[in-house]
Design brief:
By secondary structure, this protein is an alpha/beta fold. It has 2 domains: 2-115 and 291-326, Medium-chain alcohol dehydrogenases, catalytic domain (Quinone Oxidoreductase, Chain A, domain 1, Alpha-Beta Complex); 129-268, Rossmann fold, CATH 3.40.50. The protein is 31% helix and 27% strand. It contains 10 helices and 15 strands. The strands form 3 sheets. Strands 3, 4, 5, 6, 7, 14 and 15 form a 7-stranded mixed β-sheet that branches. The chain has a 6-stranded parallel β-sheet with strand order 10-9-8-11-12-13, with helices on both faces. A two-stranded antiparallel sheet has the order 1-2. Helix 1 packs across helix 10 (304-315), helix 2 (121-143) crosses helix 3 and helix 2 (121-143) packs across helix 8 (276-289).
Amino acid sequence: MFKAILLNKNEDGSTKAELAQLDDAQLPQEGDVTVAVDYSTINYKDGLAMTGKSPVVRKWPMVPGIDGAGEVIASTHPDWKAGDAFILNGWGVGESHMGCLSERAKLKGDWLIPRPVGMSSRTAMSIGTAGYTAMLCAMALAEQGVTPEQGEILVTGASGGVGSVAIAILAARGFKVVASTGKLDETEYLKSLGAVEVIDRAALSAVGKPLQKERWAGVVDSVGSHTLANAVAQVRYGGAVAACGLAQGMDFPASVAPFILRSVKLIGVDSVMAPKARRIAAWTLLAAELKPEILATITQEITLADALNWAPKILAGQVRGRLVVNVKG
């Protein structure tokens, strides 16, 4: 038997989330690698699944947890053997396939990547999908030729997991990072990560003009909606925006003007289905660039039982940085 958070659907359609004891027979049949999960995380999508606020769960019952790190127990996949250290991010795990808020999981070997040498399971989950997505955004900006010499970088949703890690990555690369947040009381925290200025998200979250004063060489946006539209409208000629989230909304009430008059590039960043080579490249950079003291500032460790109480808090914007779940704690 092993501990896991289990989601079931109540008769009224609501979601029931509880800490349960499962056995191997309840793990998915599809999957060729059985793993022991040491650490997982709670991301925004996990919060949606555990509270039922959005229909992200596609199969019932479900174990949430889109992230996991630990060791392989058994494998029939040619790339994996018992004792191998792994990282999992995305691939529909926690939505249509039982996830990693569990002491044990059965996964597809093609979904896993090797944990970088010297990186612990806890460190990997301190980064998690949020940090991995932040690195994918930083990679996208670099591939578009955005450099520190070209001007400031805007990071929206700055106090969240993606935003926090993006600030740390970009500041360490020499960029002047401006953080946009609805939590101005987190100013010192954001500056400790490397932000040179913190602005109120209200400056970006309302309806704005299709073209505005040029300011940003690049943008990392996890918010969407009017925030993304205004950010695009303020990007300097030839600049780029990496968009990876929709905390404000899925809509994009913008104009083509920045794209055809200023040659602005809007790059969509997906972490869920990203190919293995790109995942490994991102995690290699994360292992090299993220300093332990920065991760310590960003991270809060909780237990599997605690996760039930934290799920609604992450949806309410009450979480700073990253929640790391000690699955065995």
